[in-house]
Amino acid sequence: MRFGPFLSTLLHTFSNFTRIRAPSSPTRIAALRPLPLRSMSGIPFLGALFGSSSSNSTKMSYPDQRPDSEWRAVLNKEQFRVLREKGTEPPGSGKFDKHSPEEGVYTCAGCHAPLYKANHKFKSGCGWPAYFDSIPGAVTRHEDRTLGMTRIEIVCSNCGGHLGHVFKGEGYATPTDERHCVNSVSLNFSIDDKVVDIGSKESKV
């Protein structure tokens, strides 16, 4: 059993109980009672608490600098929650989790920048789409210190949209021994998209 994917699933689940503000009055205390996990993924508000991250990515400057008002106009609620508010979709729920094309390109669901080639994808069993590499320059890394530990968040280098996290050294038989754990909601896919390198190598911050 690989503990990396297992632990990441636990961490995403555990974060349901973080970032809840204190009630403004005693009558709101009941609203803070934890709900069963199986009911959380179906409630949009509680879903926003699912795996939220904080990093310095919001302080970075990206080519696509649209304000939230414009992002809300082009993204649905779940896309906005994940891409712009750093949420996480429940494990096993994404449309690209078991998607295994031989050709094509995965692009950012926000700005449509190419992110991953189809042949970067592999089966990890973690509950989210997994990629061992990205298109050069397409993904930027940031340190994420939420949940009492240090993880590496990955975002779209063009718009700063939250993609997920990258994990190293889990022992997968891939060329890089990395797993880019990406939300399906953050992605689109096209068999016809052409890959355009936007940098000599993946950006790191």
TrEMBL record:
SUPFAM superfamilies: Mss4-like (SSF51316). Its cofactor is Zn(2+). One of its GO terms (molecular function) is peptide-methionine (R)-S-oxide reductase activity. InterPro entries: Met_Sox_Rdtase_MsrB, Met_Sox_Rdtase_MsrB_dom, Mss4-like_sf. It catalyses: L-methionyl-[protein] + [thioredoxin]-disulfide + H2O = L-methionyl-(R)-S-oxide-[protein] + [thioredoxin]-dithiol. It is an enzyme of class 1 (oxidoreductase). Residues 68-192 form the MsrB domain. The keyword Signal does not apply. Binds 1 zinc ion per subunit. One of its GO terms (biological process) is response to oxidative stress. Belongs to the MsrB Met sulfoxide reductase family. This is Peptide-methionine (R)-S-oxide reductase. It comes from Metarhizium rileyi (strain RCEF 4871) (Nomuraea rileyi). The lineage of its organism: Eukaryota, Fungi, Dikarya, Ascomycota, Pezizomycotina.
